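Sequence in, structure out. Go.
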Amino acid sequence: MVNVMTTTLDPRSVAVTVTDPELPMLTLDDLGVLRDVRTADDGTVVVEITPTYSGCPAMGTMRADLVHALHAAGFGDVDVRTVLSPPWSTDWITAEGRRKLREAGIAPPGPAPVRDAGPLPLSLGPTRRTASCPLCGSPDTEEISEFSATACKALRRCRACREPFEHVKEI
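Output:
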């Protein structure tokens, strides 16, 4: 059966407006997890997303939000697929996304670690991350907890202004 679309909108223009459930100031496009949006020959809108990390609990909500937004825009059949290769990197967060994070008081990640074609090395020692305070700009900050409200963020405190803030960890 061929699906007939009931809208003249481009499905990508709808998908790029869907926000991340854990970082609602960012769209999935800002975050870099929205990989592809296309219409298949049978009229199905195919959306590809990549998780920020293996086991990300927000994937189900992202998928449901994309389906809901596209259905609300008049697209009948929507297929949201998870793409794992290449793995997501914090380098995929757009400049606009980084700006929105800073404005929300969250330190954006620095450059992601360099990956080669082989497996990632396992480090059991403490992770040494740095982040400037998104509130006052001071680089003099300390990590309070490796995990914050979500596993992809750490909790830090600025030694200059003493304010706590979250930092998106480099992946």
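Check: The two ends are 42 Å apart (CA to CA). The chain is about 20% helix and 20% strand.
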